[in-house]
Amino acid sequence: MMSGALATLAAAPTLLQSGDGTGDSAVLLPEWLADALGLDGLGGVGTAIAALIAAFAIANVMLIQAALAGPWLKRKIAAAFWGKLGPNRMGPGGSLIIVADAVRMLSKELIVPDGADRPAWDLAPIVVAGSAMVGFAVIPFGEIGGVQIQLADPEIGLVLVFAIASVTSVGLVMGGYASSNKYSMLGSLRAVAQNIAYEIPLILAAGSVVIFAGSLQLSEIVAAQQETLVGPIPAWYILVNPFAFVLFLTANLAEVGRNPFDIPEAPTEIVAGYQTEYSSVYFVLIYLGEFLHIFLGGAIAAVVFLGGGAGPVLPGPIWFVAKMWAFFLFTQWARQTFPRVRIDQLIEIGWKGLLVLTFANLILTAVLVGVLEGDLELSMAALQVITA
User: Fold this and answer.
1) 350 in Cβ contact with 198 (< 8 Å)
2) How far apart are CA 356 and CA 349, in angstroms?
3) Cis preceding-peptide flag for 13 (omega within 30 of 0)
4) In sequence order, what are the beta bridge partners of 230?
5) Residue 260: is the preceding peptide bond cis (ω within 30°)?
6) Strands of 147-148's sheet, edge to edge?
7) Which residues, listed in sequence order, are joined to residue 144 by a DSSP beta bridge?
8) Contact yes or no for 213/153 (Cβ under 8 A)
């Protein structure tokens, strides 16, 4: 039994890298649209138009999901935890509360605080929501009918999506600083400290997957998980490297600001942090950006650890959306379950706990892959880092 397990483990890197090339055989959505709409003849202009149409479609799908998750499902879940009913008066299951809330929030007066630093105060909500939306440009949502639902597939896709997501911190600092409010400023400083402390562990946990897949290209990482480990068990990296998944999930929870890491908002301490002074459409943008970031975090987890759109029977995009929603439900469960940690505890967990563990996981992964693939240079380099 032990020898069989070792043989399977030894074959894992080869299996993971062989994949069926999901991203290789399928056509990207903009290319398919350009061909289907006869835009090929327009050259670069036609390609740009097709890309805009594809981006518009994906953006609307994500906005609809954020609208469902924010004003409605979040309240239903919280009510279930508290033994209450939640929204139940407007529409089926209270779902039309989404429309009511949108009208209510957008019709409110946009109050600009005295001393606000404009245009930074005006741009901050756009940066927060926009950075999450742009991140979906490189996410492979799965294949359907020979078409890969993905806008772009750069070779540095994983680095790019992390870089885009981290721009959110800039928006939070802009909003907190420009609001001329001490609670907003404290919230923005907390957000930056938290993002720096947990961004590095998040990337290092994903880096261990890159060692297995041998690529930063998101479609290649998904393709590397298309084989099976044993019988019907898929070679998803959540199974190959479960410790990295736990570390990634913890850091991801901090990145999206959910309990026990909701320090930047902390309503009982600093009102609502960086968003205290925002109202009307600006508050809607920040609120929308918050849930878009949760879904982006779920999308990255699905690509890196859960096989992307892989799954039985149903089309790939359906499975991919289901995995994003699973992450959203996890964040809501954590929000209602874990108590908030103090700011000093949060920083200590990030720098003294997660960072050390993710470094150890990264180095051990490099040693393991080097040994299994006979790459002694990789193993020796990892061992030198350990002994240094």
Assistant:
1) yes
2) 10
3) no
4) 233
5) yes
6) 27-28, 147-148, 143-144
7) 147
8) no
DSSP of 108-151: S--PPPTT--TTHHHHHHHHHHHHHHHHGGG----EETTEE--S
Q: Which amino acid is at 197?
A: A
Contact 8, 229 (CB under 8 A): yes
Query: What are 256's two structure tokens?
Result: 């999206």
Q: Are 310 and 234 in contact (CB under 8 A)?
A: yes
Contact between residue 205 and residue 248 where contact means Cβ atoms under 8 Å apart: yes
Please list, in sequence order, all residues whose beta carbon lies within 8 angstroms of the beta carbon of residue 73, skipping any fewer than 6 positions away.
332
- The 3-state DSSP class for residue 21 equals coil
Closest to 148 (Cα-Cα) out of 9, 281, 315, 8: 315
* Residue for token pair 């990296």: 237
Calculate the average pLDDT of the chain. 84
Question: Does residue 71 come out as left (phi exceeding 0), alpha (psi in the -120 to 50 range) or beta?
Answer: alpha
DSSP-assigned letters across all residues of 197-212: HHHHHHHHHHHHHHHH
Distance of alpha carbon 27 from alpha carbon 36, whole angstroms: 12
Q: Which residues, at least 6 apart from 215, have a Cβ–Cβ distance to it below 8 Å?
A: 155, 221, 224
- 314-337 pLDDT per residue, tens: 898 999 999 999 999 999 899 888
In 3D space, the residue among 242, 188, 260, 199 whose CA is nearest the CA of residue 365 turns out to be 242
The pLDDT of residue 23 is above 80:
no
> For residues 342 and 191, what is the distance between their CA atoms, to the nearest angstrom?
13
> At a CB cut-off of 8 Å and minimum separation 6, what does 170 contact?
127, 131
> Which DSSP category does 272 fall into?
T
**Cα 64 to Cα 24: distance, rounded to the nearest angstrom:** 30
Predicted structure pTM score: 0.86
Backbone angles phi and psi of 148, in degrees to 5: -85, 120
**3-state class of 98 per DSSP?**
helix
Choose the weakest-confidence range: 124-128, 304-308, 365-369: 365-369
What residues have CB less than 8 Å from 86, skipping those under 6 apart?
75, 76, 78, 79, 80, 94
